[in-house]
User: Which sequence fits this backbone?
């Protein structure tokens, strides 16, 4: 986490504490300043913890803390309190937050979770500014935070667009397309993808251009690829190399890959996946940092629900 953000979240939490401690309080009247104080404290703590653990882990901690206060009040403190006695603010506000946070946590953990597309790596299908929905149970009902499969529901398929925790920093979420399943041999030679020695259908759809970061126009060639009946568009820059050798790390399982001047070939280890961005020459993916373990999967992306810069994209299904 950047030092500026640490200061921001710290100040927010401190201001929240000051509002809670020093705002005037009247018997029988809820203070809006105290409410803002608890919101500030909650937001500051959330931001600070997010720098050290995943979003889901932070939410779980907050659910457990507010839930413990709610349970303590319901089963112990409330029974000892006179019927007309005022509930202390340090009990009242956390117990009020608990149901809301718990519902959000359960929905995000087991049903659907929203994400925003931050880069051009999945163009042309997904663009910067798309807000997408991810199905959390496509690949099994998973234990929150630990992400172990509790109840198998479905399997990852070739061509699925998945959100996962980035192997080099698990607090960060990435989105890519699965092109290799466990045991597959994935090759990418001269901009042509093959899986287990079989070339992936690769049909030209002409030129495609887009503006990168509002600064430069990028000229590409668009292709329609089909993997086991799953069809989607990809972009390549013909004159660019199949990968940048200087970007390849010494990742776990690196011995399963062979890199040559015109491309590479990797055998996917058990329980892991090989993923690539659809914008092949503008994507940091398995070519560079390796395989995605099953435990890192968040879910399957299926819908664009908002893009404030292009409202026409609302409701676009993800191929």
Assistant:
């Amino acid at each position: 986490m950047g030092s500026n953000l640490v200061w921001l979240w710290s100040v927010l939490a401190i201001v929240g504490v000051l509002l809670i401690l020093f705002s005037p309080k009247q018997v029988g009247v809820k203070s809006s300043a105290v409410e803002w104080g608890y919101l500030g404290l909650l937001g500051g703590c959330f931001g600070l913890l997010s720098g050290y653990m995943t979003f889901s882990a932070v939410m779980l901690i907050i659910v457990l803390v507010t839930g413990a206060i709610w349970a303590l009040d319901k089963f112990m403190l409330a029974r000892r309190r006179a019927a007309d006695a005022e509930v202390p603010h340090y009990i009242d506000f956390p117990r009020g937050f608990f149901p809301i946070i718990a519902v959000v946590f359960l929905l995000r953990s087991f049903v659907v979770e929203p994400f925003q597309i931050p880069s051009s790596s999945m163009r042309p299908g997904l663009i910067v500014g798309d807000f997408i929905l991810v199905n959390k149970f496509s690949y099994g009902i998973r234990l929150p935070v630990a992400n172990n499969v509790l109840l198998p529901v479905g399997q990852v398929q070739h061509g699925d667009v998945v959100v996962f925790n980035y192997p080099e920093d698990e607090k960060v979420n990435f989105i890519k397309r699965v092109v290799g399943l466990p045991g597959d041999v994935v090759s990418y030679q001269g901009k042509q993808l093959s899986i287990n020695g079989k070339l992936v259908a690769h049909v030209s759809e002409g030129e495609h251009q887009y503006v990168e970061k509002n600064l430069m126009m990028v000229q590409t060639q668009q292709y329609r690829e089909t993997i086991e009946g799953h069809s989607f568009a990809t972009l390549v820059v013909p004159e660019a190399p199949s990968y940048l050798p200087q970007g390849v790390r010494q990742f776990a399982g690196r011995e399963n890959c062979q890199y040559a001047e015109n491309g590479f070939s990797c055998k996917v280890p058990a329980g892991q996946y090989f993923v690539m961005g659809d914008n092949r020459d503008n994507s940091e993916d398995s070519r560079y940092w390796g395989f995605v373990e099953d435990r890192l999967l968040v879910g399957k992306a299926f819908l664009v629900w908002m893009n404030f810069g292009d409202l026409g994209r609302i409701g676009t299904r993800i191929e």
